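Q: What would this complex look like in 3D?
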Amino acid sequence: MKNELKMTPTVFFSLVAVGLFTISLYILLVEPHLLRKIMALNVMGSSVFLLLIAIAQRSKPIIDPLPHALVLTGIIIMISSTALALMLARRIYQATDQKYNPYDWAEN
Amino acid sequence: MSVTTKKIPLAALKIILIILLLSVLELGLAIAVLFMPNPIIDITELVHNNLPNAAVLHPLSAILFNYRAYDILLGIVILLLAIFGIRTIYYTTAPLSETYSNSHSQFLRYLILSITMLTGGYVLWAGIFMPGSAFHLGALFASIGLWLRLSHFIQPQPMANFLLRFIYSSGLLIFTTIALAVMVEGHNLLQYPQTNAHELILLIEACLALSLWSALMVFFMASPGISLK
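A: Here is my prediction, written as structure tokens for the whole assembly.
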């Protein structure tokens, strides 16, 4: 058990990924603006990708290709969901006569 | 005055509560990540040992298009659903007038086009021994397409453009056709026959690049216009 707690790159990047995940979850809960929520979701997804890439490095000497394949599939899904979410967010702000830019929005 | 002084601590309390709960979550996740058990099956070895049967040279391509082709198949379904959603919003609003300028010189156009052609050729060639060429090719095509669109070479198409609809759905159409067609020969779903697995995978990759290209064009260029009342 004690061997696993050494600060290898895998452990370091996994902890960074966990930190990023929690920070973006906080933004997702607290921020009212949709654009910031979508960005938080993106950072959240990227943190999961970081975790998967870190796990892929665990198996030496050959790198495990399975997490890499999962990340590639995940990127496609993240791009499509982000594009749809952005389109819907812009339409919502347009239909409700609100500003799309969060800095303009904060002054209202 | 008393209302505002009451409201601020409540909001602060809420934030503190959220931060506390998230810290607990963070701690739990960190423990889960730190004490991750070792895998029971060595998947890396399994992937590398079965590579001669997979009809591709790189382990990553083997996973994407052979062992775990379901993932890509469902990924394309999501891509297509996103296109449906975006097109619905785009075509139910009146398009805005385009304001970007059309001031590239003729020389720059040909220079950029020839450089992207060269890069596309390289990516195609590198796809033989490197993984995931479909995605790179799709992204490269999309960059050319976006640049052509921004310099007014291509205009936005009407909704009932049959060719465009075919291009959007080509990845999913060809993929599902192949996945089901191998069942006629008595294989399982998505289990390619040994003799022409390589050609089938190449065909899937080409169609995937095509539909990724069109999807990225839609994702980046479509924007909601003025509401139709």
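A: To summarize the key features: Chain B touches chain A through 53 residues (CB under 8 Å). The two ends of chain B are 44 Å apart (CA to CA).
Q: Very helpful, thank you.
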